[in-house]
Amino acid sequence: MGNTVVKLTPCLAGHDADDNAPQSMTLSQMPTISGIPDSFDQEGIAQTISFKRDDSDDPNSVPFQTIHCVSLGANQIAPSSIMNDYSFSSSSSFDRSSSFSSFALHPSSSSFSSSDPSYSGILVRSDSTTILREMQAARDRRIQEKLENPTLGHRLINSITSRFKKYTGGLVCGSHTGTVHQGTSDEGKSDPGAVHWAQGRAGEDRVKMVYSEEHQLLFVGIYDGFNGPDAPDFLLANLYEAILLEIEGIQWEKQDHQQVLAAMSRALRQADEEYLSMAAENPELAMIGSCVLVMLMKGEDLYLMNVGDSRAVLAQKAEPDLSGVLGKADEDLERFKVEMMRQLEAYERDKLSGLVAVQLTMDHSTAVYQEVRRIRSEHLDDPCPVTRGRVKGTLKVTRAFGAGFLKQPKWNKLLLEAYKVDYIGNSPYINCNPYLRHHKLGPRDRFLILSSDGLYDHFKNDEVVAQVEMFTSMHPEADPAHHLAELILRRAATKAKKDVNDLIGLPQGERRKYHDDVSIVIISLDGKIWKSSPCLDEINNQEALLNC
């Protein structure tokens, strides 16, 4: 994200956000891990990963059809100072259970080739020969890593399974021997108790996805780091498990949504406190932070939490326009009913036309006037708490995980003189208080886009929804996240007046001048069979009104 610490400058009139600045829209038991980690440390400009639910699953209990994710790196990676055991060995890579599929994306001008016409040809997937070669290279690296550190290869599984044990008080695996099950049963169908997972990175972005089939619980976390990888690495390793512990004992059937959101908020606050406590021995951690976007999906209920400027955007079908039909209600009741049925059936058949973008999260940045006003009101003794569009001249985000140097004077004092800010008073300049939201999925909801802010540096919400809508209608089996990654590169190249192939050819770090790290997760909701038909509901409502 665009939050690298910059040299502090005097507070100048006219640089702060003005009054007209626009405001952004606002587990009981989980017995098995589906497969062992298959690390894909492939060298490529980006990585894609996807998950498709088993066709044999009960569609009434599965809240989504597919998950598509892409990670496009731009920042040069510096080694993590505290989270080395959780680090990846390349700038863009994924670890995953075998139920997720993964591909490296390479520039089309390289030796890699693809015959898939769904994409523009900027980025192509590795061919089968390359995939096998990369798999063997990744396997060799893992063997070497295990020789050097025997615990590294199983750290992720051990972390997940140990949390499940604490959470459930029972066995993680169905087997008495405690071995990890593969993701399929003897009949070849998906194990109903499987837990599928994947995690990856792009530059300083981190993403994590975990799905429990038995409990129909999906977790997605996107962590957009700044000033270093330590904060997002810490979140990747700890926040999901912390949330699991906090939601222990929640009775989901009672539909106490505030209880779930409060548990998520507590987990984030505790993780933030634990991370900052390490800054006493590692002062550099006081500068490093991350935006946070977390989603839990339980049946038809979405629970969202964010700090910073990552977003969750829902593609929702607009309400049907029945104004022309309703005006004829007094002419002929039977004819009215037939016309109403025809209009609503046509509306229902047209799955994608007329989608609107609904932002389910709130941006916390200096571009949001309310956030700037809040900081100023909390620092009346500071003449310039926000200068040149940044909090104390350093960060664009107004809320974040970590970044203790803007939360307490003691963390600011630990930094080298060149990186200290003029901290006035004791009140925090930024905080980690999240925006929380519950959304009940309905028949008009089509897909959900979760992304770090690198996507919205180039597109508005409605543009993203329109692009995914158009692409999926033309290529229903292709990967819309891959498509968005190509569009970002094209937009970045156009803005810089460069050839897109020249841009792609730049090394990581150099390319950061033109686009940010980007992590995008697109969740298709088309697999949901709703309990009631919107057509029948609308017709029944209109008949009731006419009979009054």
TrEMBL record:
The keyword Protease does not apply. Its EC number is 3.1.3.16. InterPro entries: PP2C, PPM-type-like_dom_sf, PPM-type_phosphatase-like_dom. The keyword Transferase does not apply. SMART domains: PP2Cc (SM00332). GO terms for molecular function: protein serine/threonine phosphatase activity. Residues 186-525 form the PPM-type phosphatase domain. Coiled coil: none annotated. It catalyses: O-phospho-L-threonyl-[protein] + H2O = L-threonyl-[protein] + phosphate; O-phospho-L-seryl-[protein] + H2O = L-seryl-[protein] + phosphate. Keywords: Hydrolase, Protein phosphatase. It is an enzyme of class 3 (hydrolase). Pfam families: PP2C. PANTHER family: PROTEIN PHOSPHATASE 2C (PTHR13832), PROTEIN PHOSPHATASE 2C 46-RELATED (PTHR13832:SF351). This is protein-serine/threonine phosphatase.
